[in-house]
Design goal:
It comes from Selenomonas ruminantium. This is SnoaL-like polyketide cyclase. This protein is an alpha+beta fold and 138 residues long. It has one domain (3-132): Nuclear Transport Factor 2, Chain: A. It is 33% helix and 38% strand. The protein contains 4 helices and 6 strands. Helix 1 packs antiparallel against helix 2 and helix 2 (22-28) crosses helix 3. The protein starts with a helix and ends in a 6-residue tail after the last helix.
C-alpha cells in the first residue's frame, strides 16, 4: 500500500469507529488483529474485540466521536492523532453519568497488512476524560 491508500483506509476506519459498522469492521480488521486498550488487562482480538471498545465508549458517551487530526504513514504502519469528544451520559469505569462533556487527544499506532488493520496500540487521554467529566477531582 502507498501513503494515499493507507490514508483512504484510515478514512474508512474513522467511519467504522464513529458508526460501529460491523460489516465495515469485518472488512477493515483482520480476524486475528490484536488491540491494546488501557481499560483492558488483556489485548482484544479481531473485529468483535475492536467493536467491544467502541461499544464500551458508546455506552458511557452516547455521542462519542473521533476525528482524525493528523497522521504519519510508512509502509505497513500508521500513527494517528485523534480528537475524541463526548458527553458522559452513561456508566464509565463504574462511575455514574455526570452529564459533562469532554474533548481530548488520542494517539494510536496501527500496523497494516494486506489492507487490514492487524494491531492497534492506543494511547487515549483517559486522565483528561476523567478530569473533564468530573470523575477525577482536580
Amino acid at each position: 500500500m502507498n501513503n494515499s491508500e493507507e490514508k483512504q483506509l484510515l478514512i474508512a476506519f474513522e467511519t467504522m469507529i464513529n458508526t460501529a459498522d460491523e460489516a465495515l469492521a469485518e472488512k477493515l480488521i483482520a480476524p486475528d488483529a490484536i488491540f491494546y486498550a488501557p481499560t483492558q488487562p488483556e489485548p482484544l482480538v479481531g473485529p468483535k474485540g475492536y467493536l467491544a471498545i467502541v461499544h464500551m465508549m458508546r455506552s458511557a458517551f452516547s455521542d462519542v466521536s473521533w476525528h482524525m487530526e493528523d497522521c504519519v504513514t510508512e509502509p505497513g504502519k500508521i500513527a494517528v492523532c485523534w480528537t475524541c469528544t463526548g458527553t458522559h451520559d452513561g456508566n464509565f469505569m463504574g462511575q455514574a453519568a455526570t452529564g459533562k462533556k469532554f474533548k481530548v487527544r488520542c494517539m494510536n499506532f496501527y500496523q497494516i497488512k494486506n489492507s487490514q488493520f492487524v494491531s492497534d496500540t492506543g494511547c487515549p487521554d483517559i486522565f483528561g476524560i476523567l478530569m473533564q467529566t468530573g470523575l477525577l477531582p482536580v
